Amino acid sequence: MKRYIGVDLGGTNIKAALVDDGHQILIEKSKPTLLPRPAGDVCADIVAVVRDILSQAGLTAGDICGGGIGCPGMVDGKRGVVSYSNNLAWRDIDLAPTLAHAIGCPFYLENDANAAALGEARAGSAKGAESAVIVTLGTGVGVGIVIGGRLHTGYSGTASEFGHMVIVRGGKRCTCGREGCLESYASATGLIRMTWEAMGENPNSRLWAIAPSRGEVNGRTAFEGARLGDETARRVVALYIDYLACGAANIINALQPEILSLGGGIAKEGEALLQPLREKVYAEVFGGRGQRHTLIKQCTLGYRAGLIGAAILAEDNADAS
After folding, report:
1. Helix (H, G, I), strand (E, B) or coil at 149
2. DSSP bridge pairs for 318
3. Hey, which of 176, 180, 293, 305 would disulfide with 116, CB 3.0 to 4.6 Å?
């Protein structure tokens, strides 16, 4: 049995796993990222988590065929460098070489959304599909494109940044510096902002009772309010789905994938999100309702998609070498 390390570096947590050649997770561990702090400190924690996994498994670095890591932002996979990550506040960080040197096995780098897309396409919701787009609705909006089981990353390695496609000209400022990006409206961060704004305008909304009882407003608060019949919450959900549908229709018009899968916390709403989203998207895509449509569905691997996808990245590179 061949074994690989998969790492998913996020703004909140560092997650790592030992994955076998059947794409099953054997051991996984996590540690808070604790941003903002220097990249060297974060790398040291990644190394510590991986070493902890190897120790628990009774393995050394020599027993591992390689490791992969998914990182938010623009990455140069060939050099293993994080070119720019607005969420981590990193620029030109030699991530993969640093990990390879410290851990003692080859390491490969990919954008985190691409890594998650690779996991879903090869082992999850889009397994067997000729082409798939995986959209992760989290702190930002990550998009990965897989064609024929392989990532499409463009000539510079930074393709598929549909989260930074403008859908509202002159709209909310995005962390990337542009205004009106899909990420500003369709991310969990955007939905939370819209929920707070609606609550401020509607002091009698039941959302005020829901939020304190859950400790805070999160990406599912508006959906919970909508299920309870709160009109303010229903309007927030409808507005959010409108924005997401605009982005999804644009992606489908551009790429015509066989499957478009949604991941992240908001996607856990299932058909409460997917059913109205399909209706809006299928009405907006080029050709309208009468054509053969991209299948819009929910991702199946959850947060493990990034871990499994990073391990598959290492597997593919090991097989190619």
Report:
1. coil
2. none
3. 305
Beta bridge partners of 68: 6, 108
According to DSSP, the residues that pair with 7 across neighbouring strands are 16, 69
Give per-residue pLDDT as tens, 211-250. Answer: 877 778 999 999 999 999 999 999 999 999 999 999 999 9
Tokens of 104: 């003692």
Name, in order, each residue with C-beta under 8 angstroms of 196's C-beta and a sequence gap of 6 or more: 217
Quick one: 178 exposed, middle or buried, by C-beta within 10 A (0-12, 13-18, 19+)? middle
Chain centroid offset of residue 27 CA: 21
H/E element, 40: helix 39-57
Task: For residue 47, give the DSSP letter.
Answer: H
C-alpha distances out from residue 6 to 28, 71, 300, Å: 9, 11, 18
Element (H, E) at 227: helix 221-227
Strand 25-32 vs strand 74-76: parallel, antiparallel, or unpaired?
unpaired
Could you report the per-residue pLDDT of 110-168, keeping only the tens digit for each?
999 899 999 999 999 999 999 999 999 988 898 999 999 899 988 877 788 999 999 99
Contact 251, 143 (CB under 8 A): yes
Are 63 and 77 in contact by the 8 Å Cβ rule? The answer is: no
Return the SS3 of 208: helix
What is the tens place of the pLDDT at every residue in 181-221?
999 999 999 999 999 999 999 999 999 999 877 778 999 99
Cβ count within 10 A of residue 48: 15
The 10 Å Cβ neighbour count of residue 13 is 15
